[in-house]
Amino acid sequence: MDDLDDMGAHPDAAPATPAATLVVFRHDPAGGADGGPDRAPAQILMVERSGSMSFAGGATVFPGGKVDPADIELAEHLIVTGRAAGELADVAGRITAVRETLEETGLAVGLSGAIDAARAAAARALLLETGRLSAVLEAFDWALDLDALVPFARWWPRHRNMRVFDTRFYLADLGTGAVEVTADATENRHLFWASAAEALRLADERSIKIIFPTRRNLERLAQFSSFSSARDHALVTPIVIMTPSIELRDGERWLVIPANAGYPVDGELLEGADRA
Predict the structure, then answer these.
(1) Along the chain (276 residues), what's the average pLDDT of each consecutive run of 10 residues?
(2) Which terminus, N or C, of the chain has the lesser number of Cβ atoms within 10 Å?
(3) What predicted TM-score, i.e. pTM, was given to this entire model?
(4) What 3 state SS string does the chain have?
(5) How many CA atoms lie within 13 A of 241 on its CB side?
(6) Are 60 and 75 in contact, with CB atoms under 8 Å apart?
């Protein structure tokens, strides 16, 4: 089927799977503390997916994954008991972002309580065993700090013949510099820290592979040298659902996103776009 018929906001598009991803910032250990004109840009955590994965296999992305039923169950409980407020889908998305980040990287982000490296490692092991963040919260007497996650974007492709994800993107600040992370060795094979500009350079050199949404978000993040500036931008920029479509520009087909949504680049030639 022609790409022009396969993309866009089709009424018969494949059902979307809710998902969430977390852009984790840290200060550059070489001197990237937040703010200051002479500081190196903040770094973000990138995850290289296993080549065997059916979606974005071998691609470098941000930590994240699909929303599990247990995430929705926990979100409902938090809302009913008054410990979280807001739309159920957003609360569940934040929980998913916290859970997936702990599972994939070992970082306890968006959590509060007595947390150190040893307890984070034990919590990760329990999470990998049970698959439930609620079990971790109970076992370690931790609480969720969902306000630490800042809504940044929402991407929802509307392909007619492909599995699609309705993905919520959040920002969070780790703060500290030198932090050890390890891949979970199931869905991912490599983790590394880089500024958004550095990640784009690696992609242009073909040292890493990035898909269309990741490239657009890295370009947007590269406008900011610190978590605080990215957060301030996110807080004042209305979230527009990014549904890529195809349009003709000067006789060539481009894969594009809605304009005026905070992204400095709104598309690229379809021929060169990696759509996972």
Answers:
(1) 48 79 92 58 90 61 96 98 96 98 94 92 95 97 97 88 87 80 64 96 95 96 97 97 93 93 94 75
(2) N
(3) 0.89
(4) CCHHHHCCCCCCCCCEEEEEEEEEEECCCCCCCCCCCCCCCCEEEEEEECCCCCCCCCCEECCEEECCHHHHHHHHHHHHCCCCCCCHHHHHHHHHHHHHHHHHHCCCCCEECCCCHHHHHHHHHHHHHHCCHHHHHHHHCCEECHHHCEEEEEECCCCCCCCEEEEEEEEEEEECCCCCCCCCCCCEEEEEEECHHHHHHHHHCCCCCCCHHHHHHHHHHCCCCCHHHHHHHHHHCCCCEECCEEEEECCEEEEECCCCCCCCCCEEEHHHCCCC
(5) 9
(6) no
